[in-house]
Specification:
With 208 residues, the protein is mainly beta. Helices cover 0% and strands 55% of the residues. It is built from no helices and 19 strands. The protein has a 6-stranded antiparallel β-sheet with strand order 2-3-4-11-6-9, with no helix packed on it. Strand 7 (77-81) and strand 8 (84-88) form a beta hairpin.
């Protein structure tokens, strides 16, 4: 198939850093960054998770971390980042610094969001939403030194491999692929495409 399927039912649940809610870890890892320290300070260079937000309030502080948040369930929320409010609508990735003082206000009840975190100076992430149409397969290529994760935002998506077999994906399931190769998606719906690279491979800049 070309990738590892990660199922929603198997994601590990844990409390938020500030104790204000719960999150489920989808995947995490380290990158090859030869000019950086040998190991990340608290076990990961990048991390993808799903958080349930039942009420407004402050976000946990993550110094040295860049974040991209995408609402995958719910009507919307307003994040105030270092005093600047930003409306975050469904399936619209929003990037901000984990160092910033961030507060959340819910617009219409509880929400569920996907969080992509990368350690500044070691890893960068690009997150975009992709529509998969029944009339045409969607192929996503993965490059050398890159980690590609594809998370389903809707039902009705399957991932296929070179052998012609398909694996059906449930909502918020994820496929992880490392290094050169490609994932072929079939069906009708939306997915989040997440690309993780070592910071040095993109000149140390932050890409979303």
């Amino acid at each position: 198939m070309g990738g590892d399927v990660l199922r929603w039912s198997e994601y590990r649940s844990m409390p938020w850093k500030n104790g204000g809610g719960t999150t489920r870890e989808v995947a995490s890892g380290a990158v090859q960054a030869p000019l950086a320290s040998a190991e990340p300070a608290d076990g990961f260079d990048w991390r993808v998770s799903i958080a349930d937000v039942d009420a407004g309030g402050p976000f946990s502080s993550f110094p040295g971390i860049d974040r991209v948040i995408t609402l995958v369930e719910g009507e919307g929320m307003v994040l105030t980042v270092d005093g600047t409010p930003q409306s975050v609508g469904p399936l619209s990735p929003f990037a901000f610094s984990g160092d910033a003082v961030t507060d959340c206000r819910l617009e219409a009840g509880a929400v569920r969001d996907m969080n992509v975190m990368t350690r500044r100076g070691r890893a960068t992430a690009r997150v975009r939403m992709v529509t998969v149409a029944a009339a045409q397969d969607a192929e996503m290529a993965c490059a050398e030194g890159e980690t590609l994760l594809v998370m389903t935002a809707t039902e009705g998506i399957a991932v296929g491999g070179a052998d012609g077999r398909e694996t059906a994906l449930g909502r918020l399931d994820c496929v992880r692929h490392e290094g050169p190769g490609a994932l072929t998606l079939r069906g009708d719906g939306s997915v989040a495409e997440i690309r993780i690279t070592a910071a040095l491979t993109v000149g140390g800049s932050h890409e979303w």
